[in-house]
Amino acid sequence: xxxxxxxxxxxxxSKIFKDFKSDKENKDTFFCAAFIIINIKQSTFEYxxxxxxxKYIFTFKIPSVDGEEITLAKEELIEGRKPLEKLEExxxxxxxxxxxxIKDIAEKEMKKNKIGQSLEEIIAVLQASEGKxxxxxxxxxxxxxxxxxxxxxxxxxxxxxxxxxxxxxVSVKKPEKx
Length: 178
Known about the structure:
This protein is of the alpha+beta class. The protein has helices spanning 4-13, 15-22, 99-112, and strands at 30-39, 44-52, 56-62, 71-76, 119-129, 132-141, 145-152, 158-165.
């Protein structure tokens, strides 16, 4: 199974990343997030690693199939309420709750919260939050159930859990009477 440290090592060996780091405009960039999509029904994975500076976010998409090229996308940085903090690249090797455990942790927490639907897809973002490495998960389950949870990546502890239904996000507007 792939780990964040493996993805970083693969990226660092790539020509595209070496060229990126050798460009003096990118000298102040830092690793700020890992983005993983796990499609459980199709057994597929998508991986990307994000780096940022004060102006841009650079997303390196790491292919899950050997032989495919790593791609780079550059976008203007839009600051949110909480800016993406720096992730120490060496901290990736110390993660207890790595990619391979996300699904199991999510399913265990769902069972604990008496949610019987099966998971279909997990969108996972690893980022630093208040000095801790945290996985923020959005899990899609059967019957339009959406679960948001946060997991401490160092301890595997579930910090936040919330269940919603897709219909909670849909508002139906009644037609006006004439």
